[in-house]
Give the backbone structure.
Amino acid sequence: MSEDPFKKFGEWFAAAEGAEPNDPNAMTVATVGESGRPSVRILLLKSWDKSGFSFYGNLGSRKAREMQANNHVALLFHWKSLARQVRIEGTVTQVSDAQADAYFASRPRMSQIGAWASEQSRPLPSRELFESRVEEVEARFRGQPVPRPEFWSGWKLAPDYFEFWQGIDFRLHDRFTFSKTASGWETGRLYP
């Protein structure tokens, strides 16, 4: 077992990039609403380093409102082809405007247009209305770069807990943990 959870994550993530047929960067993001009810969805990890794990979206979305009310968030990566999971828990903060601008500029143009056209997580009376909004945004920015909307940004989760799960036959799985302490990371193991 490594003494560094980021090194271990990097090794497992690289293996997933080589083995998973679709979206090895897909992760479940769990938040808690104001009522105390959990909420989960799949998002894509866009970058990571020793300071945390970054993902992006609409600031008016349900996930954004929940993270604003309670910044304790959990991530789960599940790489079925490798029989591996990684749980990561920590706190999120919004990324800087410069980071959000840079990532937004790297997105495909239609994804940029979709960000402008979507009132994410709000009720949509008809699909036709959304498609009409997409056409309006396309016309508005025709022939020019699509700027990042003020209502769109990203978050970075600073981890304080990792759990690595390796599937083994007969449910004799291997689970090891990293818990952040004042002096570094404390390691441990869990029964399967």
